[in-house]
Amino acid sequence: MKKLILFAGLYCMLPGLYAASIVKSTNHKLAPMSASERARAHFRENYAEVNNVAWYTAPDNSLYCIFHRGNTVDRVFYDSRGYWQFTLVSYQPSELKMNIRQQVSDQFEGYRITYVNEIQSAYDEPIYMVNLENAGNIKVVKVTSDDIEVKQTLIKE
Predict the structure, then answer these.
(1) FRET partner for 150 with CA separation of 20 to 30 A, picked from 85, 101, 134, 144?
(2) Taking the CA atoms of the chain, what radius of gyration do you get in angstroms?
(3) Residues 78 and 99 occupy one common structural domain
């Protein structure tokens, strides 16, 4: 009886076998196989206008690249499988959005903004790491939407 059920099951599967295509797929838009190829494909898709790129491999086999666009230095980071993680854009305070600059200046009177690192990730809003300085102190603050958090305070000597 078991053999009969097995043969009946196999017989039902036969039409499905003939329905499959025997022609090789010509779809070449599949994701690249290696991490390096995947990262480079993502980079070309998102930064097509950039041509002065330097690629590096980190000790954990993750990848990153560095390039300049105008007055900014951009670093794009990928995990060890070649998937985009985040982009770090560094620039002078004059390039910072006016509303963020005003928000920081209002909270830290007497300080001047010396440098900005903008972190772009899968989240909607970027995160800004802003370096501030006055005569005796250096502060690094994290700015997100409407929140400012002091991450580090140093005393100048």
Answers:
(1) 85
(2) 26
(3) no
Last residue of a domain, one of 65, 89, 113: 89
pLDDT at 92 over 90: yes
Q: Which of 106, 138, 101 is nearest to 118 (CA)?
A: 101
Prediction pTM value: 0.74
Task: Evaluate whether residue 1 is within a structural domain.
Answer: no
Judge whether 119 lies within some domain: yes
Q: Give per-residue pLDDT as tens, 53-76.
A: 999 999 999 999 999 998 999 999
CB distance 128 to 151 below 8 Å: no
CA-nearest of 43, 52, 125, 34 to 76 is 43
- Count of domains in the chain? 2
Those residues with Cβ within 8 angstroms of residue 138's Cβ, 6 or more apart along the chain or in another chain: 131, 132, 153, 154, 156
